[in-house]
């Protein structure tokens, strides 16, 4: 059974990919000026799921900046001025 799940929505529909504790899951989305990479992994020593979000160069490889990292069970970091602000689906909010 998979431990991690990722979904992608595009013109061809939705695709799902799975990762296990041993493999983790890496998702990357890119535009002309850069990319965002999300890495999920299992830390066997801590017995917890870890995440890392990185701004990357595109199409060249290499990290520019780690945007966030931590444990999935600790919730999201407070990155919005209004912490009560609801996160909206990009397709609904007009981003897509």
Describe the structure.
The chain has 96 residues and is mainly β. It has a domain at 23-74. The chain contains one helix and six strands. It has one helix spanning 90-93, and strands at residues 4-10, 13-19, 25-31, 34-43, 48-56, 63-71. The protein has a four-stranded antiparallel beta sheet, with no helix packed on it. Strands 1-2 form a two-stranded antiparallel sheet. The longest helix has 4 residues, at 90-93. The radius of gyration is 15 Å and the shape is globular.
Keywords:
two-stranded antiparallel ribbon, 96 residues, globular, mainly beta, single chain, four-stranded antiparallel beta sheet
Brief description of this entry?
The protein is mainly beta and 96 residues long.
């Amino acid at each position: 059974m998979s431990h991690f799940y990722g979904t992608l929505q595009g013109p061809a529909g939705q695709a799902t990919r799975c990762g296990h504790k041993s493999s983790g899951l890496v998702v990357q989305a890119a535009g002309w000026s850069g990319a965002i990479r999300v890495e999920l992994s299992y830390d066997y020593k801590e017995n917890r799921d870890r995440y890392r979000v990185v701004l990357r160069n595109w199409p060249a490889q290499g990290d520019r900046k780690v945007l966030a990292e931590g444990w999935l069970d600790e919730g999201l970091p407070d990155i919005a001025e209004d912490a009560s602000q609801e996160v909206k689906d990009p397709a609904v909010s007009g981003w897509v």
